Q: What sequence folds into this?
């Protein structure tokens, strides 16, 4: 295996990347290799998919499969090699069906036949699949094209993975877009062509950023259309006595289905990690047994899950190897999976409910503590006049957006220090699980405007962008001229997609950490620094002072 797609990649060797029997995420070499091959298979589907689209017959089933397939290859999503073997067989079936459609539509008219990935046939057994995977990994062609081109290909691929993950979240809620599917196909076809020009690769990376903006808008419409506009909400973060289920991951549709399945059972539902924002949606918080949030960010799950006295439902992503203490009471659903852990499909959550009724639950009610969430764009822009007046009056000097993925690597205390060090006349907006670094700190308010505004999940970057655009219009300036600093914490490929969106929108001077992506070579990083002003995080107080001084100047 060779993988360097996430922030926790091995950096102890001369060439950064996980290249041993098991990656730092817990993914074994077999699974990693099969994921590489699945991406290659998806390129082949896209080659024929783009042809079919050009002939007026896009294949929705194949498009949906490509979203799901790429989602399963994100960091901390699916670790089950047998499921990848099955998906590889399924990928070949999709490709062959779309190929047949193209041949039928062409009706003897000469047309260019795709090669490369489009010609792939799955090996007969695991050994043959692994042999195929060895030829198509992320480092394929390295001796010929060099590390800069391979790194830029990785930037495009990893951004595309994030796009597909967000698009899948929207799809399962019933929201799809032919424009999005066409964009995903185009990106895969581009990668299948084995591009070698740095300029073309960067151009396609930024195009993915624009596509991801459309996807985040689609997902925002899916979430708000299904569950209502988020509204400021106090969420209990201490348990109450009773039977309980813990839901982690990102999928709000799975949470809704579980809430329905537990109606009238006496079982309380707690959210974990990136599911915390669910409490701000009117339709979800209307369920009286949505009891509160338990624990912290994804990297705390082994201790959080071990201590939770009920079953756990893991949706979508951010899974770590389950410990023996809870392996028999954790369930997965959707793209996520681990060998030996029971996987549930089609919202058939009866086994989770049965486990909750059999397990002890919380024996006592702890003293109530709450945090306030739900400051999506409508909530913030609803008081935009007060915000603008406070800025003009000098009551609000600066805005900081401190958000993204959390993680276990050293250096992430930077975000705690930065947020808590922000002066009292500044406002901190946050999103993603990075918020757990400081969301229990008491920030106070400025004239009734809370100094900490939790915008939601990582995909709620869309809300942050809309807030920034609205403020720039109100102040008749560009977004880069606002008293606003972006401090981004990245970990995996959804964050890569969001970063590409910010760059595509022309946002500059983003502070990125805790370390820079290993696939960004010095030459590629130099391009990003010169064109977009990206900088690695440093000392929290020094960066804070510099941000305030730059805007003050």
A:
């Amino acid at each position: 295996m060779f993988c360097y797609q996430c922030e926790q990649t091995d950096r102890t060797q001369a060439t950064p990347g996980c290249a041993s029997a098991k990656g730092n995420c817990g993914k074994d070499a077999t699974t990693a290799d099969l994921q590489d091959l699945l991406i290659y298979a998806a390129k082949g589907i896209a080659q024929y998919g783009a042809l079919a689209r050009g002939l007026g017959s896009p294949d929705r089933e194949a498009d949906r499969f490509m979203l799901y397939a790429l989602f399963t290859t994100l960091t901390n999503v699916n670790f089950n090699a047998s499921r990848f073997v099955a998906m590889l067989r399924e990928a070949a079936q999709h490709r062959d069906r779309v190929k047949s459609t193209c041949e039928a539509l062409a009706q003897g008219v000469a047309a260019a036949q795709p090669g490369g990935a489009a010609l792939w046939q799955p090996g007969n057994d695991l050994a043959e699949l692994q042999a195929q995977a060895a030829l198509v990994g992320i480092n394929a062609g390295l001796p010929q094209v060099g590390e800069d081109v391979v790194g830029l290909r990785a930037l495009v691929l990893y951004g595309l993975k994030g796009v597909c993950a967000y698009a899948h979240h929207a799809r399962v809620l019933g929201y799809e877009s032919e424009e999005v599917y066409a964009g995903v196909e185009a990106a895969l076809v581009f990668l299948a062509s084995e591009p070698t020009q740095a300029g073309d690769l960067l151009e396609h990376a930024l195009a993915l950023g624009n596509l991801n903006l459309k996807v985040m808008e689609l997902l925002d419409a899916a979430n708000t259309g299904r569950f209502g506009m988020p509204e400021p909400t106090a969420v209990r973060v201490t348990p109450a006595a009773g039977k309980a289920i813990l839901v982690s991951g990102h999928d709000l549709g799975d949470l809704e289905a579980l809430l329905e399945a537990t109606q009238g059972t006496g079982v309380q539902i707690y959210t974990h990690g990136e599911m915390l924002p669910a409490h701000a949606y009117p339709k979800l918080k209307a369920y009286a047994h949505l009891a509160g949030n338990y624990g912290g960010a994804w990297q705390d799950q082994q201790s959080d899950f071990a201590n939770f006295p009920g079953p756990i439902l893991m949706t979508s992503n951010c899974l770590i190897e389950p410990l023996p203490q809870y392996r028999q009471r954790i369930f997965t659903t959707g793209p996520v999976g681990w060998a030996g852990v029971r996987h549930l499909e089609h919202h058939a959550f009866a086994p989770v409910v049965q486990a909750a009724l059999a397990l002890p639950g919380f024996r006592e009610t702890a003293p109530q503590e709450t945090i306030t969430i739900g400051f999506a764009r409508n909530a913030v822009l609803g008081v935009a006049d007060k915000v603008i007046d406070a800025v003009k009056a000098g009551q609000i000097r600066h805005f900081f957006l401190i958000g993204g993925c959390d993680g276990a690597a050293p250096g992430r205390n930077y975000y705690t220090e930065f947020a808590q060090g922000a002066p009292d006349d500044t406002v901190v907006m946050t999103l993603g699980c990075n918020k757990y670094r400081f969301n229990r700190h008491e920030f106070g308010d400025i004239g009734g405007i809370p100094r900490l505004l939790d915008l939601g999940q990582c995909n709620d970057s869309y809300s942050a962008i809309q807030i920034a655009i609205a403020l720039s219009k109100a102040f008749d300036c560009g977004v880069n001229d606002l008293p606003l600093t972006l401090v981004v914490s990245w970990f995996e490929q959804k964050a890569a997609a969001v970063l590409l969106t910010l760059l595509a929108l022309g946002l500059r001077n983003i502070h990125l950490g805790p370390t820079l992506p290993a696939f960004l070579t010095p030459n590629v990083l130099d391009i990003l620094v010169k064109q977009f002003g990206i900088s690695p995080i440093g000392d929290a107080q020094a960066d804070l002072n510099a941000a305030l001084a730059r805007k003050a100047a």
Remarks:
- The mean pLDDT is 96.
- The chain has 18 helices and 16 strands.
- The chain has three domains: 29-225, 233-358, 376-552.
- Residues 142-172 form the longest helix (31 residues).
